[in-house]
Amino acid sequence: MSIALVAGGTSGIGLATARRLQQRGYDVHVTGRGKERLDDVASSDPELTGHQADGGDAEAMAALAGTLGTVDVLVVSLSGAEGMGPIDALDLAVLRRAFDAKFWAHLTTIQAVLPHLAADGSITLLSAITARAAMAGTAGIGALNAAIEALVKPLAVELAPRRVNAVSPGVVDTAWWSGFPAEMREGFFAQTAASIPARRVATADDVAEVVTLAATNRNLTGTVLEADGGARLVSLG
């Protein structure tokens, strides 16, 4: 059975992707930093195998990959909620922490798993619309997601015939927004749904469907797939 590893697969888009890969017949392993979320996955999705490991910990990720044998599909769905804010007040220490949590963790996971990745395997990364959209207050987090996307093309060439892609979501109703007051969050979702061409805020599974396509379609490589409901075509600022 082919093996899929979803780093950051205990919630949101990562968990939705893990479920879709399992439905396609993969033996799916997910990582998470917190035992509580891993316990939740063990209860809700016993067909998935959870591992407590930090994507930014090279030794832990390499050790885990070594126990799996050959990894056919690697999905890196690691993120954080920091790095936003106007440039004149942006705390650069917080932005560095955001880069550690996402960009450096993506890169660390790729390096750690690469020796165990199948010769025809795939790597799929998660960025976000802020990499290209011109929204005030997103210079920091936009640079972070742009850095993720900048990995895709050179790695697709360097690691060929392994495939490397990324998926760029727009506004998605996930736990990422849990730190915002409910009234603010709901108002923003309503405003977004009214303004973007898709006329709805995406679910985690909407994006997971695209991630699964990128991870499994043997003719896709070096591509950033935009799964943003058309948000990049309008102003969300």
Provide an overview of this structure.
With 237 residues, this protein is of the alpha/beta class. A 7-stranded parallel beta sheet has the order 3-2-1-4-5-6-7, with helices on both faces. 46% of the residues are buried.
Question: Outline of this structure?
Answer:
Belongs to the short-chain dehydrogenases/reductases (SDR) family. The chain is built from eight helices and seven strands; from the N terminus they run E-H-E-H-E-H-E-H-E-H-H-E-H-H-E.
Give the N-terminus to C-terminus distance in angstroms.
46 Å
- Give the number of domains: 1
Runs in which pLDDT lies below 50 for 5 or more consecutive residues are: none
What share of residues is helical? 40-55%
Task: Give the overall silhouette.
Answer: globular
Structural class: alpha/beta
* CATH topology term: Rossmann fold
What is the CATH homologous superfamily assignment?
NAD(P)-binding Rossmann-like Domain
CATH class category: Alpha Beta
Question: Helix segment count?
Answer: 8
Listing every helix as H and every strand as E from the N terminus to the C terminus, the arrangement reads EHEHEHEHEHHEHHE
Descriptors:
globular, 8 helices, alpha/beta, 237 residues, Rossmann fold
Please specify the SSE layout and strand pairing.
Layout: E1 3-7, H1 12-23, E2 27-32, H2 35-44, E3 49-52, H3 58-68, E4 71-76, H4 92-113, E5 117-126, H5 139-150, H6 152-158, E6 163-169, H7 182-195, H8 204-216, E7 223-227
Parallel strand pairs: 1-2, 1-4, 2-3, 4-5, 5-6, 6-7
Helix pairs in contact: 1-8, 3-4, 4-5
